């Protein structure tokens, strides 16, 4: 066993297989040692942590050392980095890192923090280095090519957007000119009055007034500005200095050239040095003042470049907040978001064999299947294929399953939607989706459209102020009318609330065929249970179990029975069994009937006791007279 890191004078060392802590003290002192924190790093698996390792992992090895068998894979070689921290009963903290020069006892310092950071960092870097070694340029290029091929549309869209943004940025950068200094209007007037303004430009179509001052005044203004900047700087520097002092200091510092960094460049490339905004109704005075002082003034339109610049900036600043909104809108409106999910016949795994206990409904739907497949020549007698079949019944009776079975048996494209998917935020979107769905179905005829929970859009009109829902329903009615007589598209709707449907939807020519999918009787329940028990490994004969459960579950629908079987399998898995036993099934029935509780003896036990008084095992009793005959359901019977 090779040791690759030996830590310390009095300490901890690591081997490939396990961790050995050499306390350097007699065994008796460290007997109750327990690990408070241990972490390992395995190169291929990332970092593994075994927190609060129990003492059962700790073995004495030799006179004065302990061994922690690590739980990782045997063939893994732990990296150098790991940490052990254990507390001895006498309160001393023993801490050791694989890279430590020495193990510390009862001492925590800043070096510990550094060590801990390096301890975390080192394995990650090592891992990164290992991964980098595996990376080859060719495989990377291949990966990129595959990615590009798969996402060509997205990539081209994103690159166009980035290119456009890049061009905008370049344009803004190239056309950027140093902006003139903005001054208050009052300052402009004062400068005019003191005849320091040399040239004025009034921009047409805006309130901007550009002006230049003679160099002396400009310098004065600049120095004033600089000294005020100096003040700010000094205030920043000292933070405590009085205002007046700081002005003096600022000037001194300015003289010393310390403000070179913050002072404006003296030579401006801009044609105009100052900018102010016009005040309304003051034009008369302004013009007379300029005339009086002999100032050169003119007016000019905004330059094309500048107007382009400002338009671009406006557009970009508008689009930045608008983009997420537009994206949301696009997602809402996109046809890719259409609720029609086309399922190919090959994907269908449900057939009529999987639906039991609803024989009448099955017969009705089988006829539709035969018509779709063309095995019944209904046209010869002038009959028409029913356009819509409405499956009505309580929840969980198998309406959806029946529709899927129809599609599976007919072997035609099946478009399954939930009516709630047509309920949209935007008026007209639900109707558009209906139109879209029917268009696709028509193109793939013969086909089946299944609309689950039809009452979500098919409710009576005019009862609410929801215009969008009424529009959606109108569209559905129109689409169902719009089928040509030889168009082999069947719409199957399912609802639990037929009374809530709009009468127009149920009239002949639309959902003309109404099929009741009711609660199954005992025979039906037995058959449904047999379907669901098909794939479950049972300890006993599935038929016996089906009969037993069917007799105990009056009023249960297919979904309840499927749930019982699933619960029983889960219970069996929980106790680690290989097969599902009768007890599991009984407990699952009890859970389905009465919920999960701890009552003893169990309620179902009592019920079973009433039904089968000769059954002692299920009532939790052990009857000494157990030498009876086997009953028909596999229970002990008394002779
Ligand atoms: N007659 C049945 N035969 C076999 N399994 C059934 C039957 N009825 C229901 N099930 C089981 O119950 C599950 C749910 O049934 P399904 O979704 O078809 O009920 P539903 O009548 O459409 O309910 P809802 O009205 O609430 O939509 C099915 O996936 C199936 O496992």
Automatic annotation (TrEMBL):
A GO cellular-component term linked to this record: chloroplast thylakoid membrane
Family matches, as SUPFAM superfamilies: P-loop containing nucleoside triphosphate hydrolases
Gene3D superfamilies for this protein: 1.10.8.60, P-loop containing nucleotide triphosphate hydrolases
Pfam annotation, one family: AAA_lid_3
Transmembrane residue ranges: 155-172
Biological process (GO), any one: proteolysis
The entry's keywords: ATP-binding, Chloroplast, Hydrolase, Membrane, Nucleotide-binding, Plastid, Protease, Transit peptide, Transmembrane, Transmembrane helix
The organism's place on the tree of life at top rank: Eukaryota
Family: Belongs to the AAA ATPase family.
Recorded GO MF terms: ATP binding; ATP hydrolysis activity; ATP-dependent peptidase activity
Residue ranges of every copy of the AAA+ ATPase domain listed in the record: 385-521
Topology term for the membrane: Multi-pass membrane protein
Record's subcellular location: Membrane; Plastid, Chloroplast
Protein name: AAA+ ATPase domain-containing protein
PANTHER family recorded: INACTIVE ATP-DEPENDENT ZINC METALLOPROTEASE FTSHI 3, CHLOROPLASTIC-RELATED, METALLOPROTEASE M41 FTSH
Key word Cytoplasm present: no
